[in-house]
Amino acid sequence: MDFDFPLRKIIHVDMDAFYASVEQHDNPDLKGKPIAVGGSSKRGVVSAASYEARKFGVRSAMSGVMARKNCPYLIFVKPRYDRYKEISHQVRKVFFEYTDLVEPLSLDEAYLDVTENKKGNPSATLIAQEIRNKILEVTGLTASAGISINKFIAKVASDYNKPNGQKTVNPEEVIEFLEQLDIRKFYGVGKVTAEKMYQLGIFTGKDLKTKSLEYLDENFGKSGKYYYKVVRGIHLSEVKPERIPKSVGAERTFSENLSSEIFMLEKLENIADELERRLKKSKIAGKTITLKIKYSDFTLQTRSKTLPFYISDKALIIETAKELLFQSPMQNSVRLLGISLANLNTEKKENTAQEEIDSVSVQLKFDF
């Protein structure tokens, strides 16, 4: 079918169980075994789980205790972030062999725009296959990919044939693909939103498509317009090689709960040290400081203050963080503290013009 907006050839590449796969690759004794990267202690959290561990319900962000309960034979491995960054750098070098339009989302995934590419290959599907083969050759690790006309569909598609697979959604297949899609698979629909949609009788893309823009705005606020558009294949966001951070932060989870502001001050000093290091490394400053407090009952509280000038110096960061700390009494003992800086000097003025779906009329015949 024809679309009244620019069609691109977008690939979303996602490494398979990245941290866990790196550990299994570097230590052959771990291959084929259920492993979790992270801590197994009372405070430990799973950063990544191998596919063998996932069969037992072990997932990232799960507590180490729960993970062990789900899988008694689970092997915990300490994370090696320097090693993951090293591999990630190798993977990105492969991406840049094909296009300069690479938008990393994290160490293990990225969008690539190959509408025009360095290989002169008109088939995004074949390019994705080449990239995955090259990644395997260079790193010994597998990756999955999704290929389609925009970032949204490509990201959804990359999950379809995991691990070590890929899926292409051609232009003429987009609408049917989205209509049949389980609402939980829509990127941007979290667990809470999915439950709300279920209550409203929205289970698939086809159900979502029957709802008017006004209805979605009323029930989902600002996200309503996003849902209205993506289910119709409309997602005009370009692949942006330079992702500008909205905030920079640092946080710590403690082995023992902190029961007094006096103990918290020492921890905040260390966190501010780390935040200052990150800011100066990136040559970033900001105006809005946010103090994050997670209590022992997992209640989360944030307190923010915006200054009239940009800062990146630890002394000013800690001074404001202390002010925020004593803004109100503690509700409980504390398990996590964090400080972040937003309203950064790197932010550019957003183009406030609305992206109207009839603003551009470009119809291309694509060989996917």
From TrEMBL:
InterPro entries for the chain: DNA/RNA_pol_sf, DNA_pol_Y-fam_lit_finger_sf, DNA_pol_Y-fam_little_finger, DNA_polymerase-Y, DNApol_IV, PolY_HhH_motif, Rev_trsase/Diguanyl_cyclase, UmuC
Sequence positions that bind Mg(2+): 14, 108
Record localization: Cytoplasm
Organism whose genome encodes this protein: Croceivirga thetidis
Active site, renumbered: 109
Name by which UniProt lists this protein: DNA polymerase IV
Every UmuC domain range: 10-190
Gene: dinB
Subunit annotation: Monomer.
Function summary: Poorly processive, error-prone DNA polymerase involved in untargeted mutagenesis. Copies undamaged DNA at stalled replication forks, which arise in vivo from mismatched or misaligned primer ends. These misaligned primers can be extended by PolIV. Exhibits no 3'-5' exonuclease (proofreading) activity. May be involved in translesional synthesis, in conjunction with the beta clamp from PolIII.
Record-annotated site: Substrate discrimination: 19
HAMAP family for the chain: DNApol_IV (MF_01113)
Pfam families, alphabetized: IMS, IMS_C, IMS_HHH
Keywords per UniProt: Coiled coil, Cytoplasm, DNA damage, DNA repair, DNA replication, DNA-binding, DNA-directed DNA polymerase, Magnesium, Metal-binding, Mutator protein, Nucleotidyltransferase, Transferase
EC number: 2.7.7.7
Subcellular location, principal: cytoplasm
Cofactor(s) recorded in Swiss-Prot or TrEMBL: Mg(2+)
MF terms (GO), sorted A to Z: DNA-directed DNA polymerase activity
Cofactor detail note: Binds 2 magnesium ions per subunit.
Annotated coiled-coil segments of the chain: 258-285
Keyword Nucleus annotated: no
Catalytically driven reaction(s): DNA(n) + a 2'-deoxyribonucleoside 5'-triphosphate = DNA(n+1) + diphosphate
Signal sequence, renumbered to the chain: none
Family in the record: Belongs to the DNA polymerase type-Y family.
